[in-house]
Amino acid sequence: MKRSLMMVGMLVVSAVASQAALADAGLDLAKAKNCLACHAVSTKVVGPAYKDVAAKYAGQKGVEDKLVQKVMKGGSGVWGAVPMPANPQVTQAEAETLVKWVLSQK
Asked: How far apart are CA 64 and CA 39, in angstroms?
Protein backbone atom coordinates (compact mmCIF):
# COMPACT_ATOMS: atom_id res chain seq x y z
CA MET A 1 0.00 0.00 0.00
CA LYS A 2 2.79 2.42 0.93
CA ARG A 3 4.54 1.63 -2.31
CA SER A 4 1.38 2.39 -4.34
CA LEU A 5 0.91 5.70 -2.57
CA MET A 6 4.53 6.60 -3.13
CA MET A 7 4.21 5.79 -6.87
CA VAL A 8 1.07 7.95 -7.14
CA GLY A 9 2.86 10.77 -5.35
CA MET A 10 5.82 10.52 -7.71
CA LEU A 11 3.49 10.59 -10.72
CA VAL A 12 1.77 13.73 -9.42
CA VAL A 13 5.10 15.47 -8.77
CA SER A 14 6.31 14.45 -12.23
CA ALA A 15 3.13 15.79 -13.87
CA VAL A 16 3.41 19.11 -12.05
CA ALA A 17 7.08 19.44 -12.96
CA SER A 18 6.31 18.57 -16.57
CA GLN A 19 3.57 21.23 -16.72
CA ALA A 20 5.95 23.82 -15.25
CA ALA A 21 8.61 22.91 -17.82
CA LEU A 22 6.04 23.25 -20.63
CA ALA A 23 5.00 26.66 -19.30
CA ASP A 24 8.59 27.91 -19.29
CA ALA A 25 9.46 26.37 -22.67
CA GLY A 26 6.26 27.62 -24.30
CA LEU A 27 6.59 31.18 -23.11
CA ASP A 28 10.29 31.31 -23.95
CA LEU A 29 9.61 29.93 -27.42
CA ALA A 30 6.73 32.38 -28.00
CA LYS A 31 9.10 35.22 -27.11
CA ALA A 32 11.92 33.87 -29.28
CA LYS A 33 9.69 33.32 -32.33
CA ASN A 34 8.09 36.79 -31.98
CA CYS A 35 4.59 35.39 -31.34
CA LEU A 36 4.05 37.99 -28.64
CA ALA A 37 4.15 40.75 -31.24
CA CYS A 38 0.57 39.78 -32.16
CA HIS A 39 -0.63 37.69 -29.19
CA ALA A 40 -0.68 37.85 -25.39
CA VAL A 41 -1.71 35.27 -22.85
CA SER A 42 -4.70 37.09 -21.40
CA THR A 43 -5.61 39.93 -23.76
CA LYS A 44 -6.28 40.34 -27.46
CA VAL A 45 -3.53 42.21 -29.29
CA VAL A 46 -3.66 41.83 -33.08
CA GLY A 47 -4.56 38.18 -32.74
CA PRO A 48 -6.57 36.48 -30.02
CA ALA A 49 -5.40 35.99 -26.45
CA TYR A 50 -3.93 32.55 -25.91
CA LYS A 51 -6.43 31.84 -23.12
CA ASP A 52 -9.24 32.51 -25.63
CA VAL A 53 -7.67 30.11 -28.13
CA ALA A 54 -7.41 27.46 -25.40
CA ALA A 55 -11.05 27.98 -24.43
CA LYS A 56 -12.31 27.85 -28.03
CA TYR A 57 -10.55 24.58 -28.84
CA ALA A 58 -10.80 22.85 -25.43
CA GLY A 59 -11.57 19.16 -25.76
CA GLN A 60 -11.67 19.09 -29.57
CA LYS A 61 -10.12 15.99 -31.14
CA GLY A 62 -7.29 16.59 -33.62
CA VAL A 63 -7.02 20.26 -32.72
CA GLU A 64 -3.28 20.13 -31.96
CA ASP A 65 -2.42 19.03 -35.50
CA LYS A 66 -4.80 21.63 -36.95
CA LEU A 67 -3.25 24.44 -34.91
CA VAL A 68 0.33 23.32 -35.61
CA GLN A 69 -0.43 23.71 -39.33
CA LYS A 70 -2.02 27.10 -38.68
CA VAL A 71 1.08 28.28 -36.79
CA MET A 72 3.35 27.18 -39.61
CA LYS A 73 1.22 28.05 -42.66
CA GLY A 74 -0.97 30.87 -41.33
CA GLY A 75 -4.70 31.23 -41.68
CA SER A 76 -7.62 33.62 -41.77
CA GLY A 77 -11.27 34.08 -40.99
CA VAL A 78 -11.46 32.32 -37.63
CA TRP A 79 -10.73 35.29 -35.36
CA GLY A 80 -11.72 38.19 -37.59
CA ALA A 81 -10.51 39.92 -40.69
CA VAL A 82 -6.79 40.11 -39.85
CA PRO A 83 -5.01 37.01 -41.20
CA MET A 84 -2.31 35.18 -39.31
CA PRO A 85 0.78 35.08 -41.50
CA ALA A 86 2.78 31.93 -42.12
CA ASN A 87 5.73 31.39 -39.78
CA PRO A 88 8.41 29.60 -41.81
CA GLN A 89 10.96 30.23 -39.04
CA VAL A 90 9.00 27.87 -36.76
CA THR A 91 9.83 24.18 -37.06
CA GLN A 92 7.28 21.39 -36.68
CA ALA A 93 8.62 20.53 -33.22
CA GLU A 94 8.55 24.17 -32.14
CA ALA A 95 4.99 24.57 -33.42
CA GLU A 96 3.95 21.48 -31.46
CA THR A 97 5.49 22.91 -28.28
CA LEU A 98 3.81 26.28 -28.87
CA VAL A 99 0.40 24.73 -29.51
CA LYS A 100 0.57 22.52 -26.40
CA TRP A 101 1.52 25.57 -24.37
CA VAL A 102 -1.24 27.74 -25.87
CA LEU A 103 -3.84 25.04 -25.25
CA SER A 104 -2.70 24.79 -21.61
CA GLN A 105 -3.60 28.43 -20.91
CA LYS A 106 -6.54 29.09 -18.58
From this structure: 18
Which residues, including other chains, have CB under 8 Å from residue 33's CB and lie 6 or more apart? 87, 89, 90, 94, 98
Give me the residue spans of the domains in the chain. Answer: 2-103
Using a 10 angstrom Cβ sphere, with 0-12 exposed, 13-18 middle and 19 or more buried, the burial of residue 45 is: exposed
Global confidence as pTM: 0.78
Q: What is the pLDDT of residues 41-91, one digit of tens each?
A: 999 999 999 999 999 999 999 999 999 999 999 999 999 999 999 999 999
Domain 2-103 coded CATH 1.10.760.10: yes
